[in-house]
């Protein structure tokens, strides 16, 4: 790029002395495309004229050996002899033959519960928009079987686009994580090494490898791909993350940290007094404030979660184990070429509990911690179907697009080499589910690299964005009626407008968010406080959002209060019952119920003599004192026959 860089800010720093050791130096932006910087040769050995690209055949043929040699560097810490290889293709085929998987694309399954999928086959105008989801919700996967991506607002590269093109646009020297299907462990390749692997004929590949985490939004490829319209319309990152200094100023003015603001104001007043209240000094303080906001915005732009554009390149036979996308995010998924088979499990409370227990025992690739002792060889579909759940199978072909809602547990199998464009997005239509998955990840101790980046910070900005809508509506009404109506009247109108704009499930989701934010605001854990937006009074934001949503939910007339009232009514009726009625009721229950008798086996190895045996014929236990010649077990039986349920078991001697 021929641009100048400050040597002291680089990593590693470059001084005039070390600069002279480079033959060619590449800045961090150019390194992915042109390779690392080259040092001057320290030998006089003659170099060959033909350039040779080094191919690591250890990586290509035996990733497990690489994992063993680099276990201290890549954070996996698994030796090759501890790696368990699994034939997932055979596992899936066996269960398919047994009829374990329901067809997710048909109108009815063998269980009569119907399909898990909404299939859109008609062409024409795109109907899957934020407006459509507002009315119909987004709780099931949606498949666009039409091979016309422009109908859903999806922009893709033209024809003749290949794996090699991806490497050229993203950078042949850029490193990416590669998953070994048989072991579900990861290693690192450069994209050029990855293309070399994929160019090997399928029969000659000794390992089946998969790339699913290549984020490309800040590369030339990012300009050739645009997310579907629905994902762009509802994505919290694009809608709520501050983009300008004006956004930050509004946040600080309305929800700024009073302690920091007071401290800043006192310093400004001190400066004014020292300088005699000079107007030039006021101008300087404003410039400093603008500089601070600019610096803060720069930091936020570096932290912005970039998860909306991923490129997935999979070799035939690749398998991604069952998982829930980080933070409960929804997913868009377009098959550019190749084929994919999805296995879906609905995120019911029961299924999520089974999944979390399975994922934390160490057998899955979801990044959870825990031991490997229980269910060491378990396959999640076996556990789900054994508990009465369903696993749905959905085939995705070239040119088709799939939308996966928040929380859905899924695995993916690749029958042939495939190139996929996809992405994740957080949205308002599944806030409760997203927060459920966030808490589940925390409980499962999912690693940082497997979590949604800066999720909690994003949720604070989401809360602020909702409060900002309320403030904007209040301002518009104040201007419209010229201040004639009262504040309370305007507030009631705002609540009516908010309830009219958002469906019930969205408002209940925001209420759940307010409750979660209130808990975060009281937290003293560094992992939580580090994600508090700088200078934001998080307690104030949490309280205001909670108060607003409480009023909105009350306006909707949700039955929470009515249910509580019915409970109180039952308590009052119980108080009115007389002692005789209670006694009669208890006697009826005692006649209906029989006690559960737990047999007691004598621990003595020798048989008792005849004069000390229980008088029940055939019983070999000792008779007990004060038990009328019976052993303890038969004495209890006699008592139960005589007295019903009113037995004082404590009175029976040991």
Automatic annotation (TrEMBL):
Keyword flag Transferase: no
Lineage: Eukaryota, Sar, Stramenopiles, Ochrophyta, Bacillariophyta
UniProt entry keywords in alphabetical sequence: Chromatin regulator, Dioxygenase, Iron, Metal-binding, Nucleus, Oxidoreductase, Transcription, Transcription regulation
Classification via SUPFAM superfamilies: Clavaminate synthase-like (SSF51197)
Compositionally skewed regions (Basic residues) per UniProt: 573-586
GO biological process, one term: chromatin organization
Localization of this protein: Nucleus
Pfam family, any one: JmjC
Domain (JmjC): residue spans on this chain: 272-442
Gene Ontology cellular component list: nucleus
Region Disordered: start-end pairs: 259-293, 570-594
GO molecular function: dioxygenase activity; metal ion binding
Protein name: JmjC domain-containing protein
Keyword Ribonucleoprotein set for record: no
Main localization (coarse): nucleus
Native source organism of the sequence: Skeletonema marinoi
